[in-house]
Amino acid sequence: MPAPQHITHLIRLDSLCKDWSSIHSHSCALFSSLINILTQRHTTTDVLQNISASDATISRLVTNVNFSSISLNPLDQVLTSQTLSLVIYKQSREIENVLTKIHKIIDDFEEILKSMESILSQNNKILFGPLMITNALSSTLPNSAQSSPSSSPKKQKKKSKSSSKSKQTSKSGTPKKQPPPDEQKVDDATYIQAPLSNFYISEITRMYERELTHKRNLMFGGALKIDLDTAVGVGGIKSVSERWAAQPHIDFEIEEEMADRIKIWKTAKELGQ
C-alpha cells in the first residue's frame, strides 16, 4: 500500500534537508580553503616586498608558503621577483575560483528552497483544499439557495418518518461501515497525521527561508570584503566563515523530530506488511 501523499511530502522534505546539509558542509570547506589561500598570498606578498633582503632572510620567510602548485628549479637558492609574481598570480586565480564556487552554493541553496516551497504548496492543497472549495461554492450560491424557506409540514413529517426508520435499522444490529485504513490509524502513535505533517513542512520551510536570507546578506551585504594586500581581509573572511557555518536560523531539533517520526512510521509499515 503506497504511503499517504502528505507523508510522501514529509519524506521528500527530509531528503532536501539532507541535501542542504551536504552542500553546507562543502561550502564550509570552501571557506576554509579561501582563508588558507588568502593567508598564503599575504605571506607571498611579504616575501616579494622584502626581496632585497639577504638570502637567509628570504629562505626563512618562505617556509610558511605552499608553493606546491609551482614547479621551481631545486637549484635556485633565491626566489626571483618574477617567480614570486607568478605565485601571487596563481594564488589570485585560485581565490577567484573558490569565490565562484561559493557563489554557486547560493544558487544550489535557492533550488532546494524552491523545492521546499513547492512541497508546502502541494501539502496546503491537501489539507485546506476541500475547505477552500466549500467556501468558494458557498460564496457563489444565490441568496435564495442559502436562505431557503422552511419545509412544509407534510415534508417535515416525511423526514421524521424516514429518520425514525433509519434509527430502527441502525438498532437492528446492522454492522457499521468500517473506516478506510488510513482513518483507522489516526490514533496510532506511529501514524503521522496530515496537520502534524503540514506543521513540519511549513516550519522547516520558513526557517530555511530565513537562513538563506542570512547567507545572502553575508555574501552580498558587504561583509565579504577581500583585501589581497592586508591581513585585515583574512580576518574578515574568518568572521564571515564562522557566521556562515553557525546557521542560526535552523532549528535542528525540529528536523530530528521529523526524521525520527518518519523512521518510526517506516518501521511500523514494514512490520505491518
Please, could you describe this protein's structure?
Residues 179-188 have a biased composition (Basic and acidic residues). The chain has nine helices and no strands. With 273 residues, it is mostly helical. The protein has one domain (5-128, 187-272). It is elongated, with a radius of gyration of 33 Å.
Question: What are the defining features of this structure?
Answer:
mainly alpha, 9 helices, 12014_t:CDS:1
Arithmetic mean pLDDT:
76
Low-confidence stretches: 71-75, 144-151, 169-189
Main sheet overview: none
What is the beta-strand fraction? under 5%
| Backbone structural class | mainly alpha
Distance between the termini: 9 Å
Rg over CA atoms, rounded to whole Å, is 33 Å
Alpha plus pi helix count: 9
* Fraction of residues in H or I helices: over 70%
Number of strands: 0
Summary?
The chain has helices at residues 5-49, 55-61, 81-140, 143-146, 153-171, 181-184, 194-220, 232-246, 252-272.
